[in-house]
Amino acid sequence: MKVIVVGGERLAYHFAKLLIAKGYRVTIINKDLNFCKELSKKLRIPIIHGDGSKRQILEEAEIMPNDVLVSLTPKDQDNLVITMLAKETFGTKRVVARVNDPENKEVFRALGITSVSPTELIAEVVSQLTIVDDIKSYFPISKEGELTVLEIAVDESSPVANKKLKDIDLPQESIVGAIFRKGSLIIPRGETSVHVGDRLFVFCHSRVQSEVMKAITGEV
Fold first, then answer.
1. For residue 113, what are the domain limits?
2. Among 77, 94, 129, where does a domain finish?
3. What is the pLDDT of residues 58-67, one digit of tens each?
């Protein structure tokens, strides 16, 4: 199984880095030749220059039914065409499309396509990939529904603002898996500082949700 990321430029780059760090195979498709050349210097993964809405390009990416396709172009119509091509022609069941106009979400939903905003992207694709098994290595979770992914915004009043993750008193059964900052995805470590404006993606046991919210926002 691999993740095929179409379009998205910088968002695709940071997103791919996150997935690679988690051990997943990633292929990137992009129409911008210069961007593809730049990526090839930074990432040791298949990078295909071409239009992801064309059948031959997805064939070149060797897309399979058990793969995950994520379309991140700035145009909802293009994302719809790309994800439908993957579903209908190649039988790829797990497709995710970036939606830029919230009014289009219902159209995607009716066609069986998961639509997300950039800030929803991490949590949704984590779910699509079933990274649950990966997260379980941090704390014991035995039943379906016990793992929760929280997206929490950090503002000036947050007690974690300007602190390093290692200094934040989070419950044992929780971990900050990713940070969305100024359009970029960050894979955090203990030394990573939390900034005002960050959006933290926290994986936790459902029973400690309130404790996590209180630790990060100061409120329950």
1. 2-129
2. 129
3. 999 999 999 9
